[in-house]
């Protein structure tokens, strides 16, 4: 039996504190100790938790641990994946990107 927590951990390819995974699940009203099912793993709540974890990775100032690190090109890939997930579950208000600079009028 695989738990929802373990499924979320498996979706994120970088070391992440377990407590942070648990917080993201709780924020999405998911119990990490419940058994993961097809319905759960394809739900907006679970996908949102994945995107929330990816957002936390992007927010990290500098991340390097156990032969894994996140550099700027990695952040761009993570940002695109995160935004695609948010868009797919209708949370476009959470999509982020590069700042836009307007010149003139």
Task: Walk me through this protein's architecture.
It is a single chain. The protein is mainly α and 105 residues long. It has helices at 4-11, 18-27, 38-41, 44-59, 72-88; strands spanning 63-65, 68-70. It starts with a helix and ends in a 17-residue tail after the last helix. The longest helix is centred in the last third of the chain and has 17 residues, at 72-88. Strand 1 and strand 2 form a beta hairpin. A two-stranded antiparallel sheet has the order 1-2. The chain contains five helices and two strands, in the order H-H-H-H-E-E-H.
Order of helices and strands: HHHHEEH
Number of helices: 5
Multimeric status of the protein: single chain
Major sheet size, sense and barrel closure: 2 strands, antiparallel
Q: Which percent range describes the beta-strand content?
A: 5-15%
Mean pLDDT: 83
Radius of gyration: 15 Å
Principal-axes shape call: globular
Structural class: mainly alpha
Roughly how much helix do the residues carry, as a percent range? Answer: 40-55%
Q: Which strand order do you get reading across the main beta sheet?
A: 1-2
């Amino acid at each position: 039996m695989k738990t929802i927590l373990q499924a979320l951990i498996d979706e994120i390819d970088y070391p992440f504190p377990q407590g942070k995974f648990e917080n993201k699940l709780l924020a999405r009203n998911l119990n990490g100790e419940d058994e993961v099912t097809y319905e759960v793993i394809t739900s907006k709540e679970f996908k949102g938790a994945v995107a929330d974890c990816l957002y936390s990775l992007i927010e990290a100032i500098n991340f390097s641990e156990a032969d894994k690190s996140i550099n700027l090109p990695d952040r761009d890939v993570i940002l695109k994946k995160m935004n695609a997930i948010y868009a797919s579950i209708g949370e476009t208000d959470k999509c982020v990107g590069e700042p836009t600079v307007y010149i003139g009028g």
